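Hi R.,

Here's the chain you asked about this morning:
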Amino acid sequence: MNPAVDRWIDEHRGEIVASLQKCVQVKSVESEPEPGAPFGREVKRCLAETLALADSFGFTARDMDGYIGYADFGAGAETLGVMCHLDVVPEGTGWSHPPYGAEIVDGKMFGRGTLDDKGPAIAVLYALAAVKACGIPLKRKIRVLLGCDEESGWGCMAHYKTHEKMPELAFSPDAEYPLVNSEKGIFRGSYKKEFTSGLKVDAGTRPNVVPGYATAVVPLNISRVLPVTDAYTCGSVFSCEVAERGEDACEIAVTGLSAHASMPEQGKNALLALLDVLSKLPLEGEDAATICALRELFKLETDGRSIGLEAADDSGSLTLNVAILRWDEKGISEMTLDIRAPISLAGEHILEKLDIGFARAGMARDSYAYTPGHYVDPESELVKKLLQVYADRAGEYLPPLKIGGGTYARAIKNAVAFGCERPGVESPVHMPNEFISIEDLMFNTKMMADAILALAAE
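And here is the predicted structure, written out as tokens:
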């Protein structure tokens, strides 16, 4: 900790809050690409405005073709990277505050990205500005990376690796304190089935989000559906709404709770609940057979046990999120899963179990991708120094963590996730009413400055 740096940050509290509000108010959800904006116009606008902020501090700012940007300060033979991202997942449903309003109520700023990861990004830029303003000598150059595709396909990081050298060491403020040195493997797979169907099902937005809302149009009179949905929702954590769509058709809408796919147990998967409801209806033929097979594969589980994937090691237990389902008169065009796997579990094993399971529903694999887990020795300079940084600021020493989330840290061998979710503090990442308290925003800004000083100051 440096008293002068802390004082500078306190003096700029209003500017820090205003900068985050401006950033959150940009709906930087990936959309159709445009020239110079590979992830859409609003993501590009968010990057441009954030780089303008970095430029205002006197940093060397660069936009790398709209894929990713960075801000440099200092010099040295080695570079310390601080890896943030500006893209966000779709807002979903269930908000009581405007998801891009950045409203401040009772000391909390509400909005998509306040925690993941715009709040940390703004904190890092102001932390580095404080270090610069206080004239502290550095032995390493600092590079703040501002990615634009972290929530989707990491095209931003692939572009960076193609055109720039990776930092020698780095941290990403995109997880939890005190520090994360172990991240599970990430498996994503999609399956499909072509057949003539009488159903229409639509659920999910992104693989890394637990679907909080799901709808189905079924070829049944509403009188045959309501008794089933009423019985299902009695005492349930899910709600169902049914509406007529003609004499012999109705729409069922199931509402659950969105959450981050790395912690699916914190959500209520509306897609799985919808399958459960549909399995109880008097559907016929291939529709009924497919629904029942899928329901038996996943039930309402988050650990993959029914499909044969329950597993655990020192890095944690496997989690499974059935994330997306697109189903129409031509059959199932997409059913996508997101799995966070223990480091010791091979991707080939996951693929084999999924292929066998989906075959029971008559479905075939369309695509898959597997990213191995990431681990950094707790005795490394990076881990030991950052753990001490947290202990000094927070007043307690805690051991490093293992998570199912996938942060930019796994892009570099010598990188960890550091912050910005605090132990014991509600952190509704990828959930409705995502927020950060103003006090936590200030705490994070000081913590980011502490980390930069510990790793880069002379």
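One quick note: The chain has two domains: 3-184+374-456, 185-371.

Cheers,
M.
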